[in-house]
Amino acid sequence: MNNSKVKFLTLKLAKFTLPLLLVNSSFATALTDSELVNAANKGNIRLVKQILDEKQIQLEELNTAFLASVKKGHTEIVERFLQGGVNVSSKNDDDYTPLMQAAHDGRNEIVRLLLKTGADVNAVNDEKDTALILAAGKNRKQAVELLLAAHANVNSKRINGMTALLLAAQEGHQQIIQILLDANAEKDYQLENGATALMIAAQHGHLRTVYTLIAAKVNLNLKTSNGMTALMLAERYRFSEVAEILRKSGAIK
Fold first, then answer.
1. Does domain 96-162 have CATH number 1.25.40.20?
2. Distances (CA, A) of 32 to 58, 68, 95, 168, 203
């Protein structure tokens, strides 16, 4: 008896939930297909200006079009939307704020505009990415410099513990690493497993990155939780040049 009641209530709730989901889906589709969003996607500044000047646009549609223009890199259109009072903290389908998206894509002029308008330089998504972390991982040198000048937290951490410095070390972005070190990035920061920027760079065979970290006087002999050092990792993955420079610099097993 009780079980049948539970089943009945579940079905009843499901009947009410389904139409709500359909309405939301239709609304999202309508926004994506709107004249303003299409114009923003295509970079049609004339049409965007005309629509904004002649029509009353709901905030939801305005923000959707704004996010589209940021992702496409249409600087002039982004500027026009900012003048119209869009929400600079809104997020797109990738859970990126406009600043995070622009930094990730290396849209430097848009990064400037957003920072000037007051975008939160340290905003995060569900993975705890920041604009700086995304820019560092993609080797966006100028974006990194702009964000740091706007007081981005150089030591912010993703959910998995990775920082901008560790991501740059993983990808071998030597210039980014130097910029981050100059901004006082925590050079000997260790992940939960003990890995450092130096170990990650050595493991991936990034010789110039390893050299830059050595020049910054990182600790050469820190160990992972299973006892591995940067030198041991370089040798294990057969990066002989990396191993040699580590040995010459005083690294030990």
1. yes
2. 13, 9, 16, 35, 44
Q: Which runs of E-coded beta strand occur in 149-192?
A: none
- The pTM of this model reads 0.85
Cβ(246)–Cβ(211) below 8 Å: no
Asked if residue 132 lies in contact with residue 152, where contact means CB atoms within 8 angstroms, the answer is yes
**Whether the Cβ atoms of residue 177 and residue 165 lie closer than 8 Å to each other:** yes
Taking CA 132 as the corner, what is the angle to CA 150 and CA 163, rounded to the nearest 5 degrees? 130
Give 44-73 pLDDT, tens digit per residue. Answer: 999 999 999 999 899 899 999 999 999 999
Phi first, then psi: give them for residue 109, nearest 5 degrees: -65, -35
Sign of CA dihedral 91, 92, 96, 100: negative
Domains 7-86 and 187-253 fall in the same CATH topology: yes
Contacts of 233 (CB under 8 A, 6+ apart): 199, 202, 203
Checking if the pLDDT of 28 tops 60, the result is no
In words, the CATH class of domain 7-86 is mainly alpha
Per CATH, the architecture of 187-253 is what? Alpha Horseshoe (1.25)
Q: Which secondary structure element, helix H or strand E, spans residue 24, and what is its range? A: helix 2-32
* pLDDT band per the 50, 70, 90 thresholds, residue 149: very high
Residue holding tokens 């089943």?
7
In the chain, where are the structural domains located?
A: 7-86, 96-162, 187-253
